[in-house]
């Protein structure tokens, strides 16, 4: 086995292990804490999808390492997941959807120009996330159009 395949095998195993650890952490968090609102369920669902995606990527890496043909992904799941994650974290930071007790102080603007700049940056990031999500979906739609 050459270096490229060995590296894919190691990274695949690490991705599967990370996905399993995240899944176990999510199961532990669900059993210990009380779910107070819909946004906490949505956050847990997003966390679970990250764990599943890591296992999926790890399996693809192991298939490549063993010389088996890798199945083509139907959609750009990585783009979709990253866009949703950034969009959710931006919405949570702006609207304080999940009540947490952290020691990290949120950034607060000291004048109206800083507030306008922070809002403009949030809008640009949200628009970029939506574009990223739709580009991941477009990959799947385009592949389906080519196959038919």
End-to-end separation: 38 Å
- Contiguous low-pLDDT stretches (5 residues minimum) are none
What proportion strand? under 5%
Helix fraction by DSSP (H/I, runs of at least 4): over 70%
Number of strands: 0
Outline the biggest β-sheet. none
Radius of gyration: 19 Å
Order of helices and strands: HHHH
Shape: globular
Helix vs. strand class? mainly alpha
Describe the structure.
With about 150 residues, the chain is mainly alpha-helical. The protein folds into two domains: about 1-70; about 75-148, no CATH class. The chain is built from four helices and no strands. The chain has helices at about 5-30, 40-65, 75-95, 110-145. The model has no long low-confidence stretch (mean pLDDT about 85).
State the gist of this model.
The chain is mainly α and 148 residues long. It has helices spanning 3-32, 38-65, 77-95, 112-147.
Topology:
Elements: H1 3-32, H2 38-65, H3 77-95, H4 112-147
Helix pairs in contact: 1-2, 2-3, 3-4
Keywords:
148 residues, mainly alpha
